[in-house]
Fold this protein.
Amino acid sequence: MLKVTQAVLREIQLPLVQPFRISSGVENERRIALVELINEVGISAWGECVAGAAPNYLPEFIDSAWIAMRDWVAPRILSREFRDPREVHPFLERNFRGHNMAKAAFEMAMWDLAAKIEGIPLARMLGGTREKIGTGISIGIQDSPEALVKKAKAAANEGYQKIKVKISPGNDVQFVRAVFTELGGTDAHVMVDANNAYSLDDAEHLKILDQFDLLMIEQPLAWDDVRQHSILQKQLRTPICLDESITNVDRALDMIELKAGKIINIKPGRVGGFAQSKAIHDLCQEHGIPVWCGGMLESGIGRAHNVALASLPNFTLPGDVSPSARYWKKDIVTPEWTMDARGFVKVPLDKPGIGVTIDLDRVESVTVRKESVRAA
Ligand code: OSB
Ligand code: MG
């Protein structure tokens, strides 16, 4: 039985080792909401809310998610005993629209709790089969093509299997050409992510990118669009991968039926947690659509959830699950996340649950607000 008696929300602030710029804004520091769920015998389980400081990726942001979690998600989770973590998502959906990142933080913590109670690794609880995850890096928009090439080459040398370059109008063809010229023919696959920076009027311009044999172009058009991507995909040789638009399994089916993309980036936070992530994974598998696990600059806790999810069989492309040192001077978990020279992150299979230990002293030292919700 999954019976939570207390939920603790903490906001931590962690400076990024390098600023991260995407088409819609820049982040120098991550404000992250962590969820700790404690059950009736004192087992602690953890989740991470991936909402950013600003509503520039999807509508949620950390302060909206905080209210959603404190006033709506936590009271629901605390009001009931669950037999199985699969029951959590449908229960949270009842007369409660949206707020997927807030819901996911709790839903994923419930999977951690279930795995800890069963004494098995989260990856196995989810149905994962992989022992290591191929890893990609997401490189933010740089000041010049030269600066980008330097970063991309360094990443290839570190062993990253996939190099994702953030693009926006004015920071695209020249930048991608420079990387293609320097890295073409190496093992690292190059892709781009536009985070909605283009419209259908840019189709001719985007076609220029076809010559670079990119692994994919991620979310070129509007954050909530599927139909226009299907028009664009017909004109592009480069496979489109949807990120922002896929907020649940129904949108994934829309993409498949409308041929609006050929790949899906699954971020569990974006789709309300693991149950929907698994449903999207399974649907894509049935339709021969590869998936990969995206990232949201997570701390070591959210990273643990992503690594566990990425161990499922249809995660056939490298995930944005870079090692801790790519983001933080010091992570909040032990051991920190590392990547081997061939670009793999190991799935922790030696401990129940998320597989890393929370460094509580470190968490407390970076906590800027904390609220606790108890069962009525
Ligand atoms: O579009 O994938 C994205 C980070 C913040 C918001 C959106 C995105 C990203 C990333 C980060 O690309 C990838 C990572 O966590 O390494
Ligand atoms: Mg993206």
About this structure: Residues 193, 195, 218-219, 243, 265, 294 surround magnesium ion (ligand 2) (CB under 6 Å).
